[in-house]
Structure formats: C-alpha cells, structure tokens
Amino acid sequence: MIEFREFEKETMGKLLDEIRLKVDANGPAYTGFVDGKVAGFAGVIQMWPGVGEGWILGSDLFASNKLWFIRNVKRYLEKIMDTHQLHRVQTTVMHGHTELIRLVEFLGMKFEGRLRNYGPNGEDYLMYGRISWHQ
Q: Of these four, 11, 44, 99, 118, which has the most CB atoms within 10 Å of its CB?
C-alpha cells in the first residue's frame, strides 16, 4: 500500500481516484521505485493536441529521495513532450508551497499567473507553464 504525504492527503482527498481515471485514459505516466517501494508518480494528462497538464504525487519516500526523483521527472518530462509532440505542458501549485514552486521551476516551468480561489477549498494556486524549445 502506498502512503501519501499529508500534503497530498489534505489537498487531493477524493480527487485522487478521479485523477487516476483521467491519467489512465489521457496520458503517459511513470512510477519511481526505491528498493521495490513506490517513491512517487509523475505524468502528463493530455488536454488536447499539443497541450498537457503535468502532475506529481509523492509517497512517504519522496522526501528522502527527492533529488533522484526530480531529476528523473525532468528527464521523462522531456521524453513525454517529444514523444507526444507537446508544445506546452502546464501545472498548478498551491500558493505558499515554496518547495513545490522550486521543483516546477527546476523542471523548466515559468510562472504565468495566480488562480484565485482555484483549489477545492478555495485556495489560491499558481499557474506554471513550459513551452517546448523545439519550436
């Protein structure tokens, strides 16, 4: 059984099952394992041709393996964008989560704006996007 961090449990709640269904139907995803246990998942949900929504979920092993995990996410994001001919991948980060903001910026994403009252409990989120450098 996968143990999610408190952040995912609190903010995602019932949405995890919905995300799982969308990912299965709409996009590539990868699972990172450490010693045979899941450290996290990452992928892109294809919204329409050329555009995807990136996502990452970490287990309790994420914190102790985050550099390894993030480097692999960056490598696979590039592969996904090339393989699926995506000219844009975007993601949202809850306002105030500076560690996650640093993560998406490391992945090459740029801040695009603030989404007020966007979260399931009215939280503000920040929109980030990455444009393919192959254009």
A: 44
Q: How far apart are CA 40 and CA 15, in angstroms?
A: 17
Q: Where are the domains of the chain?
A: 6-131
Three-state SS for 97?
coil
- In the sheet with 110-115, reading across from the earlier edge strand, the strands are 29-34, 37-48, 51-58, 88-94, 125-131, 110-115
Tell the CATH superfamily of the 6-131 domain.
Gcn5-related N-acetyltransferase (GNAT) (3.40.630.30)
Tell me the whole-structure pTM to 2 decimals: 0.77
